[in-house]
Specification:
The chain is of the alpha+beta class. It is built from 4 helices and 6 strands. A 6-stranded mixed beta sheet has the order 2-1-6-5-4-3.
């Protein structure tokens, strides 16, 4: 029970931070010299490419390729509050999901890239498992870090949406 409460607190904190940070990040985006803006544009393009590869791996149900986009110490919190620490645990979660016949839709709500250090992606998500007659709507917030020339997911937190 304590883990579920902790996961919900983490989820709420990440969502609020992401939304507030997104506003501040856009205000900072115009500052700096031309070189910094060029570097930032390159990092945004790198994130876009990584996100495209991430989605291709997810759609292909390829756990290995998907997990290549996660840090080894990544955290995943599901809409039900379940908490998964570390890439191995997160990978097991996705492996279990990928055994199901499901459809999914992830609509981007906001993308914020702060220089070449961190980024946040907010998604309006839907997952349907027809076999179970179950459809789940949730907001996902993915936090990324840029290290050694690569964007990697450090946290993937989802919270339920009404309806």
């Amino acid at each position: 029970m304590a883990r579920r409460v902790q996961a919900r607190r983490i989820g709420s904190a990440v969502l609020v931070t992401a939304l507030l940070w997104g506003t501040a990040g856009q205000a900072r985006a115009g500052s700096g010299d031309g070189g910094e803006r060029g570097r930032a544009a390159g990092c945004r393009a790198e994130l876009a490419g990584m996100w495209e590869r991430y989605n291709r791996a997810f759609d292909a149900r390829d756990v290995g390729r998907l997990m290549a986009h996660y840090r080894s110490d990544a955290v995943k919190v599901d809409p039900d509050g379940s908490y998964h620490q570390g890439a191995a645990s997160v990978g097991e979660l996705f492996a279990g999901l990928f055994t199901l016949d499901f459809t999914s839709e992830f609509r981007e709500v906001r993308r914020t890239v702060a220089g070449c250090d961190t980024a946040v992606l907010v998604l309006n998500s839907t997952l349907s498992v027809p076999e179970w007659g179950h459809t789940e709507r949730f907001m996902s917030v993915l936090s990324f870090t840029h290290e050694r020339g690569r964007w990697r997911v450090v946290a993937n937190v989802s919270t339920p949406l009404a309806g």
